[in-house]
Each structure stands twice: as C-alpha cells, then as structure tokens.
Amino acid sequence: MNEKREFINTTIISILFAAAAFAAVWYGLLSEADKAAEDILYHHPDGTSAKIKIIKIDEQAMSELGDYEDWDRGVYADLVEKLCVSDDVKPAVIGFDVLFGNDSGSDEDKRFAEACKKHGNVVCAFSYVFERELVSEDDGKVRVDNLSVVDTVKPYPALFEVTSHGFANALMDKDDGFIRSSFLYFPPEPSGDDLEFSLNAEIYKKYAAVSGIVPEFPYNMEKASFAFRYSGRSGDYENVSISDVINGRVPAEAFDDCIVLVGAYAAGMMDAYYVPVDRSRQMYGVEIHANAIQALLEGKYIYSIPVWLSSASAAIIVFVLSFCCYNISVGKVVAICLSTAAAKTITGYLIFSGLLTGIGYSGNVIIVPIFSAIIMIYYTAMHYYRASSAKRSIERAFMKYVAPQVVKEIAGKGTYELYLGGEARDIAVLFVDIRGFTSLSENLEPKQIVEVLNSYFKLVTGCIFKYGGTLDKFIGDAAMAFFNAPFDSEDYIYKAVCTAMDIVKGGDALGKELQERFGKSIGFGVGVNCGSAVVGNIGCDFRMDYTAIGDTVNTAERLEANAPKGNIYISSEVYEHLKGRITADEVGEIPLKGKSKSVFVYSVTGINTDETDQAEMAVSE
Asked: Which long-range CB contacts under 8 A does 354-359 form with residues at least 24 apart?
C-alpha cells in the first residue's frame, strides 16, 4: 500500500511539475533570462563575409575632415566618386546608414545626388517616426499599436529620386532591448504601393540584382521581420575610416564588387546597441546592418518554434524526467537530471545553429534545465527526508531493545549498516525470569496474562535502560540483557547488579499489586555473570540478531535458573569485582547444567553505595 501510495503521489507531483513547465513557457515567465541564456550558449559568430565592408565615420575622420555635424554633402559625393572609378571597378552596392533629410539646395547636395545617379548603386536610409497608439479592431477590441507612423524622415528629393532607399529603424527586443531581429518591410500588412523594404532588405535585393542571383527571403515574411544569427562581433567586419578613402590611402579596388556600408562608428554619434553576440558592449548600427545583410545572403535566419510546441515538449520532458526519478538513488537522480539539462542544451544549440534541421530554430532554452535542477533538488530532498524518517523509525525500533542513550550514540555515527560478525568483549550478562507465573496464569484470562506480562516487561526494560544496558531478547517470560556492548560503558558490572536490584525491588511492588487483584503473587529470579563473550550480529543475511554468545552468557542463564524468587545470584567473578560495594550472602558451590565444574555463587542482599552515588553511576534516561 505504501509503494502504491508513493507511486500515485509521484505521478501527481510529476503532473504538477509538467503543468508548471508548460505554463512557464506558454506565458513567457522567464523570457528575458531565457534570451540571455540563448545569447550566451548559442550565439557564436562563425565568420564575416569578405564581400561586406564598412566605411566608418569615426574619430579619425572627424579629426581630418572636421566635425560630422559640419560636413556638407560634398564629403559623400567625394566618397562615391572615389569608390566608383569606372564601370568595371566599383562596389556592387553602396549603402548609407546616414539620414540625408534636410534639403539645403546647395551645389554639394546636387553633386552628391548626381554622383549617386551616375553610378546607380547607392541605397540611402530613411527613418520612420513611430509612437504608440490605441487601435480599435473590427470586433470591438482595442489593442496597442507600437508601430504607428507619425512622421517619415526621407532623403532630400533630389537624392530620393535617383537612389534606392530603405528604412533603417532598429528592431529592439521588447524584453531587454537587444537587437536580435531586423525588419523586412513595412507596414506589416501592405496594400498597393505602400510597401517599403528595410535598408538591409533593399541592399540585399540590389546586390542580388547586380550579382545575378534570385533573392530568397525568410518564408515567414508575413511577420515583416526576421531573426538572424550574427556572423561577427563589433570590429570583425573589414572596416576603414571614410577619411582614408577620400584621401586616397585605401584604393577603390579594395571595394570592387562588394557591399559597402557607410555609417557612424563613434560613441558620440549615438548609434550603438546591445546585441546577443557580445552582451558586455554595444555594436554600432552599421555593423548590425552588415550582420543582417550577411544573414540574408547566407540564409542564416532563426525561426521561432511555435509556443504550443515549446510548451508541450517542455511539459513532456519534465514529466518523464520527474517520473524517472521515482524510487531511485540520489546518485542516479543527479546523473539523470544533469544529463537531461545537458542534452536539452546541446540539442537546443544544434537546432538553433541549423546543424540538426538545416534551418535555425529558436525555442525555450532554460525552462527544462531549471526544472531539471528543481526536480533534482526535490527528489534529493525527498530521499534524505525518507532516509531521515527511516532513521527515526529505526531509532524508535532500536529504543525498544537498546537504551535510548545507546541509540543516540549509534545515530551520532551516521550509519545503521548491519553486517554479520562479532567481536570478543568483556561484558556483564543479566538474565531474569518470573517465579510463580505458571500458577498465576492458570487462573487468568488471556487478556489478563498479556497485561501481567506487559507490566513485567515494562519494569524490566525500564531498569535495563536506566543503567545503559542492551536488551537482547525476551524468551517467553524471561529476559536477557548485557552491559558494555555495543559500546564501552564505565563500571558496567556494577550497573548490571544495580539493574538486577531494581528489578527485584520492582518485582516486589508488582507482586503486591497482583496479590491484591488476583490473589496470587509473582517474583523474579535474577542471575548476573561477567566475562568475555562474542557480541555481534549472529544469523544470516536475511535474519540476524544482535546478541552475545559464549560460556559467560550460559553461566548467567544457569545462575538465573537456580535463583529463588526475589534473589539475585551472581558468580564469584562478579562478587570479586564488586567486593565492598555490595553485600551478598554465600550460597556456595552449586552444579550448573551444562558445566562440568560447580560454580561458587553469591546472593546479593544490598548495594552499599547510597542512592545519590548510585544515581551518579547510572546512565541518564
């Protein structure tokens, strides 16, 4: 029944763990931590493309060409002319991650537009200005639209007419602000001619047209954006200062047939963001565009695993894991849980990187490992709780046979392992038996006989435990105990005799009670001997007793068998050890069954030590 109940409880616990895992994934309870874990574990750049180069607007350029804010469009016109020396030597695409919004009407503005028109390979950035807006749906529900366009910052008309263009707005993660995705186009639900591609997508399209390849966008374009794997960290893409190009220090041939991106590369230009491949520092916007374009070129997209599938798979794994941890050792629990967490992490990487499926997928990363840890802790705690409960049960069981202080000492050693074998120890052995029990029991009901025996056993057990003795066994209406085992005990022979005296005195009181109730009395005969004996677990693997065997034990039993009611017979060895501390009458030599020689016996009549000293000699209850 206990195993069945535990099995049912484990099933219920496993279902609860699975339900919690499902809810954690479904509601994205740890989405920010999950994305951070995915960044650290899975986002590992695998190399930048030599076809993508960055011309940076950096501190060097501003020191040579003046402050960026003071540049006229002639700087960019010079750049285009320096890059495009002929139809045979020029970049495939020049992408400007720079906003050219205001139209000054200057000659430099016109010159820049004419240079772009002449070479036909320039893509300029523009920007939407978004704000939140409440939108009423057809069904009457109201939703928050975070991409409500209130303004558009486009290149000045002369430039807009002669270049391709794409919007350069960054798509930051709503949970932590990191950039893991890029827009493809806008608005999300285009109609007619209002579709605008992002700067990344427009550059990719233009490069595909020049290179004679068919552009392939992510298959879930209906989401108007795509998550991608980064190819490089900040500084990985080949980059040069715009001043080096304009001043002729870098030849145009270095950019031939490449995608050239021009953008901010200085901290003061406020165009840097946090990205998954290097969480400790920001990456410039132009570098993010480079990574997104390479992802489009190489198909390094990351698709999201449907939330229902992630939730269900997490729940199934957690349920199976929890159920497998039922009724196994702590070592196996730890091994299984750690293996599950490791397997989930490794499988997640293979799926994310596309090594397993050919396409990269992003799903929940940390829920299964977290629940693996929770399950490991839970079942480890339960194991130790059950072990502790078993330990307490064993202690309670031991206390029925061994003095409580002895049990505590065993518990303090931290082990209850039992093994067959024994050791030779000097011990004192006590046997006690009821005198007059047969005649009494003939006149009693079975229930009354049990009541008498229980009173007797309670008395004997209490006296034995009082002095730290080990109750070996009950043999019918007799009992056996020994002292100085399993642990050493000071003055153990004296304690054995004190125990015998307390039993006899208690027997007198019990006898009077029975005389009043049933008209018949009982008394006890006690035998005490000391000497060497073999003490240990005697028996076999599936049934053993912790007991003492040997001539010392046999002699104590024979002494008890010969002791009249109310008498304590001790051997001469006991008497010699306690001479002066007890009073005893000589009984003389008596033959004992099973022994070839007679044994000189004494009958104890009193303890010479006063009660205070006797209490000090006794072991505390």
From this structure: 354/300, 359/301, 359/303
DSSP E strand stretches across 366-458: 421-435
Of the candidate CATH numbers 3.30.70.1230, 3.40.50.720, 3.40.350.10, 3.40.50.150, the domain formed by 404-617 belongs to 3.30.70.1230
Backbone angles phi, psi at 568, to 5 degrees: -120, 110
Q: Compute φ and ψ for 526, nearest 5 degrees.
A: -130, 140
Check if the beta carbon of residue 64 is closer than 8 Å to that of residue 297: no
Per the DSSP assignment, residues forming a β-bridge with 607 are: 582
Our CA angle for 35, 23, 137, nearest 5°, is 85
In this structure, are residues 171 and 181 in contact, taking their beta carbons and an 8 Å threshold?
yes
- Determine contact, residues 368/34, Cβ cutoff 8 Å: no
d(CA 94, CA 90): 9
Residue 43 to residues 236, 277, 370, 462, Cα–Cα distance (Å): 15, 5, 20, 72
Q: Which amino acid, 289?
A: H
Q: How far apart are the first and last CA of the chain?
A: 36
- At residue 586 the predicted structure's pLDDT band, cuts being 50, 70 and 90, is very high
- The domain segmentation of the chain, as residue ranges, is 2-28+305-391, 43-303, 404-617
Angle between helices 330-353 and 31-42 (to 10 degrees): 80
**Following CA atoms 467, 469, 474, 479 in sequence, which dihedral angle do they give, to the nearest 10 degrees?**
-60
Residues near 256 by Cβ (< 8 Å), separated by ≥ 6? 89, 90, 91
CA 440 to mean position of chain CA atoms: 65
C-alpha to C-alpha distance for 92 and 234, rounded to whole angstroms: 23
Residue 147: pLDDT above 80?
A: no
The pLDDT-based confidence of 134 (bands split at 50, 70, 90) is: low
Which tokens hold the place of 592? Answer: 């004992």
Q: Which of 310, 186, 202, 179 is nearest to 261 (CA)?
A: 202
Q: What is the pLDDT of residues 157-173, one digit of tens each?
A: 999 999 999 999 999 99
C-beta of residue 432 within 8 angstroms of C-beta of residue 559: no
